[in-house]
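User: I've been going back and forth on whether these two constructs are worth ordering. Before I decide, could you fold them both?

Assistant: Sure. I'll take them in the order you sent them. The first construct and its structure tokens:
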Amino acid sequence: MRVRGYIFILMPELPDLLYIQRHLSGSLKGRSIAAVEVKQPVLLRNMLDVPPGEALRGLSVREIEQHGPFLRVGLSGDVDMVTNLMLAGRLQHQKPGEKAEGHLCVAWMLDDGSSLRLCDERKMAKLYICRTADTGSIPRYGTQGVDILSHAFTREKFRTLIARNARRQVRVMINDHAVLSAIGNAYADEILFEARIHPKTFSGRLSEDETGRLFDAIGSVMAWGAKMVEEAARPIQVKVREHLKVRNRKGEPCPRCGTTIRREGVRGHDTFFCPSCQPPSRKLFIDWRTAGKATPHPDAE
């Protein structure tokens, strides 16, 4: 994706992973692996004592599960394949006659003639093959924070997490997968925009009202994102982002008030926000509210 001279890597996020998980569950459950092709061994973390082709051949797909930024494919024989697509990894379920897409790293040929392809031109994605009992030892897999889609994610739990991270900027806190599992960069911006909270606000300075708005925004924005990705019905290798309101929209008018969307850095990551809808709670180096006025958006609320 290119916007005004910048190229943005569309990292798969929770709505994307949920869509991929549902698609692959419907297509791959019960299928068995006929062969494995490894083009880029640098991605592979084989925790078994035999080569992947030998270890996986003949095993069938039992379940596919999303866990934080990971997708786990549970196979017969108590073997798991776990992928973390990272920045540029993409999965493609290629059916007979369909065109292969992307820079192939690993492919699994299935018994129905289709193949599951892991592609990554940057070769940053990771694929773990292990015994089911050892899945928890995969780096970051066993240390995910509270699942934001689970019943464990309550208002009271959220208040506790905010208190524990009081000195951290709120954008950093909600983006930390060891705290909340799992909010990526794009939806962190959308959540804060929905909650009308500046990304550099310290978590400990959030009011009770702001805390409640933020909790509600996490649920509503993620549900909205999942719905938009599902309705787009694109192939699983395509990252759907057209619906986002502020992410990667620097210089565009805010869809709510017409003020120009700005971009700043927060602990090494870009964040996009509306300086009017999300006013700062403390004095910052740049006050974007006075740094330039935007032309009002004709459709602004």
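The second construct, handled the same way:
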Amino acid sequence: MLCKRIIPCLDIKNGRTVKGINFLDLRDAGDPVELAKFYSENGADELVFLDISATEERRKTLAKLVLGVAETINIPFTVGGGISSVEDVENLLNNGADKVSINSSAVKNPQLINELASRFGSQCIVVAIDAKQIDGNWKVHLVGGKLPTELDLFEWAKEMEQRGAGEILFTSMDHDGTKNGFANEALAKLSKELNIPIIASGGAGNMQHFADSFVEGKADAALAASVFHFKEIDIIELKKELQTQGIPMRL
């Protein structure tokens, strides 16, 4: 079995790392370059860097900050936020990103995923999907979770795989920041229906939640922010605990 991955997420707004609950009430969580360096040296398998206001404010992701992070770390690094063209992706990869995360732009122009996969390879194209349950159905949301759509989570994820996405980063808006655990039922369904890796996001509160995301949710990786940023969970200790439960980890 492939090793499972633990991925800290740096949500960036105005050049600072922030964290909120259900995508709201943001608070400062530190300097992104310093945090990235700390995680790289303390057990993280990868990092995800999301400029959470880039799409909303129609800005491009902060390439200079991306370069600063990339020069500081030696683990794979995914960047998202406001990416809407081949040129945007080329710029980020040239500045040191290993992968890019596409969210709203994929909905507005699904063909973009085909173009990016063809140009750069599926291995560096992550499609991020923010979804919440409405009347019992998981619906995709855009613009940092502010704009609901009629898209079904599972159908959309399958289309993205078919168009060339190499991974799906699924964030449950219902679970985000609540520390009540990941959306394991939805994760398991995604894992069953797709043939590409699924990254779990939204809801991590303790070590057992990570274990559950891998065992019950069948996720390939688990992403979290505040529990790492505010030193509630140590990544090395988390990986050791997961190993004792028979979950393969890189230590």
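Notes on the second construct follow. The mean pLDDT is 90. The chain has one domain: 5-244.
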